[in-house]
Amino acid sequence: xxxxxxxxxxxxxxxxxxxxxxxxxxxxxxxxxxxxxxxxxxxxxxxxxxxxxxxxxxxxxxxxxxxxxxxxxxxxxxxxxxxxxxxxxxxxxxxxxxxxxxxxxxxxxxxxxxxxxxxxxxxxxxxxxxxxxxxxxxxxxxxxxxxxxxxxxxxxxxxxxxxxxxxxxxxxxxxxxxxxxxxxxxxxxxxxxxxxxxxxxxxxxxxxxxxxxxxxxxxxxxxxxxxxxxxxxxxxxxxxxxxxxxxxxxxxxxxxxxxxxxxxxxxxxxxxxxxxxxxxxxxxxxxxxxxxxxxxxxxxxxxxxxxxxxxxxxxxxxxxxxxxxxxxxxxxxxxxxxxxxxxxxxxxxxxxxxxxxxxxxxxxxxxxxxxxxxxxxxxxxxxxxxxxxxxxxxxxxxxxxxxxxxxxxxxxxxxxxxxxxxxxxxxxxxxxxxxxxxxxxxxxxxxxxxxxxxxxxxxxxxxxxxxxxxxxxxxxxxxxxxxxxxxxxxxxxxxxxxxxxxxxxxxxxxxxxxxxxxxxxxxxxxxxxxxxxxxxxxxxxxxxxxxxxxxxxxxxxxxxxxxxxxxxxxxxxxxxxxxxxxxxxxx
Amino acid sequence: xxxxxxxxxxxxxxxxxxxxxxxxxxxxxxxxxxxxxxxxxxxxxxxxxxxxxxxxxxxxxxxxxxxxxxxxxxxxxxxxxxxxxxxxxxxxxxxxxxxxxxxxxxxxxxxxxxxxxxxxxxxxxxxxxxxxxxxxxxxxxxxxxxxxxxxxxxxxxxx
Lengths: 587, 159
Known about the structure:
The structure holds 2 protein chains of 2 kinds. Chain A is an alpha+beta fold. Chain A is built from 20 helices and 20 strands.
């Protein structure tokens, strides 16, 4: 190296060092300048996105694993404002495909994007087929540009964003609708199982930050779905019972009705039909189908005066308390005075010499009022309370009504009420309460709590729900005597409820409806409660038809419905006729 | 003259050797830094690729879960009570009446059991894990586990 050139090299070196230092200083300055914050904040907008990760709502099955309530995919369609190329074509296609208002969509899509408004949701819960059609249009327009109607620019759906998510779906449509309830678009369960078990069924969605930088990817937390439920409902029995009920309501010109089938030993409800019903996939029709105070499920939510079916419980209480026996004589003079009012029979006739069996067989109000007074108010109401009247049964369905049982000490109770209450007048109950109370007679004194959920499936395990007993209001002996009395009553009477080959026990009910001018005979509620086979009951059935116009009598309207239900039940439960069953068990 | 002195003298007589040494050292540093940078780039690129794959898989998993729910529901529609009854009727089947049934004793027959969609709690005690232990245990855990297993095998410890 020549010495005369050394200063040149030094100068050049110094220059490079100075430039390097300047660059470093500028870098440091930029890092701490006010603009740096703006740039960093702007960059963070694209560093990832918050996403809602849905947890699927738990499914609902019948007792054999048939899906009654599941989930299906629907789409939320939004628009990415910065990406929109042609707002008019988006408005045009959404109007044509989904029926959205053209001007509203155009206004939404034409908005200026800002840091606060990047994306606008246009519509939610779009069926998958429609969303896929739109995606197809979008792809087609991208591949083969088509001039828009005004000819100014190409039609384009660029900017549309499709977010799939799950929505409740009911494959059986209106089957067991009154039992299932429904889920609103906001994901809230209403009525029935959906309402009662909403907390369990609903999964908890999570809002998660999904980074754009793949180096920052982390394992997503496990988002467990809601618990699934297996019901006690048998889909085939439910379908048959609903069909029979619908026919009966129509044939008899009834205002509505309800049929409940339960296993009297476990409280498992095989079927619970109520009219009217709604296709749960169109739950928004609820106000139209159930106007005013019409209950969603009559079987649990509507209380009414039960009428003569209540006599079963009065007689059971009287026998259990030792006041009467099956052969206790009673002279029916056609009237009986209690608390200053005269009680008369359903036909206003005097039936002469009877025993308790005859009283039940002919459904004599006079006799039962006498039985009630023999027991006395405290014993009678004590038994009725033990049978569960006046409070809810605890059935696992939303919206259960508790009925009303007035008793001495209540401001509106009068001594005459004892007389009328004995034959089911002046007391209000729900079908499910009647079923639970009478299960004590069918189940040898032990009363079961009705329930609709058989198992719960959560975290990969199935938890079976054990039957619950609601006490023993009467003894086993009383229950057996009552069953026998009611079976003989049906046989002696040649009831329409009798099913050939199977011995049944049961009782009809015809309840006058209280109005502003007192009770009227023209409008009644008809019912029938029965169980069988008497020696080993496998089912208990309660039929209730509200205000039939074909006849006012339970024996004419409700008893044949019971028979029809039992004839399907014995087939679906694989229950051989009594003779065959006795033969098979002795083989 | 000592050997050391001879070496120093040789370098003084041929200064290019010093320059070669400096250049060699500089080149070594550059090569080392390049290698480290190359390895770093390779590792980060692969990590980014895998990270992106994980993101795709997470999205795909969510999509598949939704699809499963969707298909289950669609299957339920196709096998709904109403649908099955209508198909059965089209095939000429009729609901059986109670007096058309013949009952026979079948030894060992057990009645139809209600649905079991998942194992009962005591049956489900064996937890399944998708990741083998190599992915979840530290090296230290692995070493102590191996030592423990060897000790058990040689009879030094009883499990």
